[in-house]
Amino acid sequence: MASALQNERLTRVGPGTPMGELLRRYWHPFAAIAQVDEGGVMPVRLLGENLVAFKTKDGSYGLVDRQCPHRRADLLFGIIEDDGLRCSYHGWCFAPSGKCLSQPFEDIANPAARFRDKITIRAYPVEAKAGMLWAYMGPQPAPLVPNWEPFTWDNGFQQVVFADVPCNWFQCQENSLDPVHFEWMHRNWSSVLKGHGSYGPTHLELEFDEFEFGHIYRRVREDTDKDNPHWTVGATALWPNAFFLGDHIEWRVPVDDENTLSITWMFHRVPSDREPYSQARVPYWKGPVKDQHGNWITSHVMNQDIVAWVGQGIIANRTEEHLGRSDKGITMLRRSFEDNMKAVAEGRDPKGLIRDPESNRCVELPIKHKEMFTRSMTLEESRRLGDTLQYRLNRPDYQHQVGQPDQVKLEYQIAMGMIPEDAAEPV
């Protein structure tokens, strides 16, 4: 059972808090590249800070304070320039670095003073990778944006999926080290919701390990043994705030103490007759968490997780918990965060930072059923392989989250060879 002080330390992400200072040592995805490319300027709330992201006409990305430092006007309504973002109120212009590039009237009225050289706006580095934009909000020198192994795979259709989750990020991330919930929430409860009522295989044994880039859980169910990849490879709670399952990564990005942005990067290996395949634009979409009547959606895996997270309260009260043997991974995760918050407070690097470019060429991770995502196969071969591994692979619909738009579904089905290149509608 966590103390009230530990609960506070684990959940608060604002500047100056122990967890906030730890999380600021890592890069966080916050948007799809296409979002900013298409919109020019978009609002961003990240780690309790109100910001705007933008793309200059010369192709650089920026992430700066939402309020102009002149008279605090909203830069969401700024003007995109070749090299920066210009405030629409009085014309002050800022580079992605935060440097003030011009102050039109001041530059004319008193050019010798060079007042603009005395002004900067709060700004954070932005990098593009895997169809997403990433921000680093910590001290320099910044580590590298991790080039996780799936980001290096060829011949894949990628998409980025969002959801707004109205609760604290940490209870979402704890789910990443909780294997038993798969048995009950995604198998048994799903069966009840669909009217079947049958229960699936029971978990018999669990093990948890820590490694450089997170934690791994291993499990044995009634229908498996220790020769099964569920045990030999396991699943990865990717440090500090993600879950990795081979063909996709789910981030639980802290918006603030009471809200989380769920971001899923999904990879679908295209069939052999579609290779070589190169994707010019990675599509994105946001899935709803409630239906038109205001009821929580429970039909898809990610939506079920969201129901569980939000059901714990806006900020889970861990002082009221009663943890058991299945929660060994939860206590391990909390202990790791405490250790790494202490490291930062003592001026040391926390775990999982990558600073060596050679090591970052491809950061390997434990991957169950890797052949499903990297082997050249026909569409039917991939589906048969998935069926043998109890993995519903390469079907027309998106199984993880509700709400995939028809346009994204159309792009996916064309890429996978499910419908002709000139199809106007998905199946």
Brief write-up:
By secondary structure, the chain is α+β, with helices and mostly antiparallel strands. It has 12 helices and 18 strands.
Structure description:
- This protein is an alpha+beta fold and 427 residues long.
- 24% of the residues lie in helices and 23% in strands.
- The protein has 12 helices and 18 strands.
- The strands form 4 sheets. An 8-stranded mixed beta sheet has the order 12-13-14-15-16-17-11-18. It has a 4-stranded antiparallel beta sheet with strand order 5-6-7-8. The chain has a 3-stranded antiparallel beta sheet with strand order 1-10-9.
- A hairpin with a 5-residue loop joins β7 (93-94) and β8.
- It is globular.
- The termini are far apart.
Report how far the terminal alpha carbons are from each other: 49 Å
Rg over CA atoms, rounded to whole Å, is 23 Å
Number of strands: 18
Strand percentage lies at 15-25%
Structural class computed from helices and strand pairing? alpha+beta
Helix content: 10-25%
Number of separate helices: 12
Strand order of the largest sheet: 12-13-14-15-16-17-11-18
Based on Cα principal axes, name the global outline. Answer: globular
Poorly predicted segments: none
Written as H for each helix and E for each strand, in order along the chain, the element string is: HHEHEEEEEEEHEEEHHEEHEEEEEHHHHH
Mean pLDDT: 97
Main sheet? 8 strands, mixed
Fold blueprint:
Blueprint: H1 4-11, H2 18-23, E1 27-32, H3 33-39, E2 41-46, E3 49-55, E4 61-65, E5 79-80, E6 85-86, E7 93-94, E8 100-102, H4 104-109, E9 126-129, E10 132-136, E11 156-165, H5 169-174, H6 180-193, E12 203-211, E13 214-221, H7 229-232, E14 235-238, E15 242-244, E16 248-256, E17 259-269, E18 284-286, H8 301-311, H9 328-345, H10 371-374, H11 379-388, H12 406-415
Parallel strand pairs: 11-18
Antiparallel strand pairs: 1-10, 2-3, 3-4, 5-6, 6-7, 7-8, 9-10, 11-17, 12-13, 13-14, 14-15, 15-16, 16-17
